[in-house]
Amino acid sequence: MKFHLVGKIGKDIKVCNAVPDSVQTFARGLIEEAGKKGKKSGSENISSSSGSGSQTTNLIDLSMEEQDHQTKGVYQSSISTLIQKKEKEAADLAIGRFFIANNIAFNVARSPEFINAIGEVANHGPGYKPPSSETIRTKLLCDLKEEAMEYVNVINNSWIEIGCTIMSDGWKDQRNRNHINLLASSIKGTVFLCSETTEGKVKDAKYADFILRGIDEHVGRENVVQIISDNASNYIAAGYILEAQMPNVFKTNCAAHCLDLILEDIDREILKVSDIIHKAQNIKNFIYKSTHVLDCMQNFTEGKELKRPASTWFATNFLMLESIINLEQSLRFMVASNEWCALSQTRTVEGREVSYIIQDTLFWEDGREIIAVIAPLVKILRMVDSEGATLGYVYEAMDRANEAISKYYDGVFVKYEPY
């Protein structure tokens, strides 16, 4: 080791070029001293002396060993990290391949059940084999049903102590048939009670009868504290029937439906808003009518899509407008491009109208103004339509929305009065 540090050739030792001068000088002195005193006596003197010769030599040797050990540890750690990275990449690719091959929506990756399943597989470790399709559709299905029923029973039993709120939800299926779902909600959770298919508009008496039958069969009138329904005229009329049958129960209108009706009134009563929403719908309809036009848009928006409104929520029209406003520059570049002009669809009357709308500066200015004014109301709608008790925040949120709209117009009442 000393010859290695000194840089002396021989002793079957390679020369170290990384040794500091101070260490090299000290090691050379040790070699010369050992040579003078003889092999045996030199060894005895060095080991028996109180001086620092032996200790320093040992320290040098120890230091080099520690350095070798640390270098080896870092090297092994780097290899381990690299292997783990490769293994994760392989696992990620396998999961991605599974999603794509089976046409599974990408947002399923955010599902708590999916994340929990991956965690349980990792806890099991190597050698885990997934259940067969036969096991899933028989044993596991029965086990999960039993687990769900236990959860529902816990909620049902809590109604005796804390009561519950009855909620109705109307919707249409793909055949345009009307359905009403009945649900019971409490601080313990929300459960589905029953559903009924209706023909045409739901009559107030029939709706009230459906609510009462659902309560009697699944909940018990004594366990109901509140009934929440939409604000349509037939539901309001049914509410009076329910109040007569259950005088101790609160009848409440759906806050989310109220806000959606407010947004619909704004569109109907303010000409500028309805005009911009109509133009935004024309842009969306034209682009998504043709795959060639859609491909052209996606090339300029880097794959970003326009949001398409849902027939059941008018507020989604404003979300559609917002998605168009956010892509203003991309859409402007698109209609000015050779790719757009080369499309046969863009040379039609409808295509020229859409091109004019996108190139119209006033459309973008009015669109940004509408989004800025409507955004506080949409924010409240999202809040009340989320999970959990939010009614206590509605009044404060409405006050803040009014303040935000007033601030946008610098407090000039004439400008924000229509809203």
TrEMBL record:
Residues 131-283 form the DUF659 domain. Residues 37-57 are annotated as: Disordered. Residues 43-54 have a biased composition (Low complexity). It comes from the Eukaryota. SUPFAM superfamilies: Ribonuclease H-like. Transmembrane segments: none annotated. Pfam families: DUF659 (PF04937). PANTHER family: BED-TYPE DOMAIN-CONTAINING PROTEIN (PTHR32166:SF123), OSJNBA0013A04.12 PROTEIN (PTHR32166). This is DUF659 domain-containing protein.
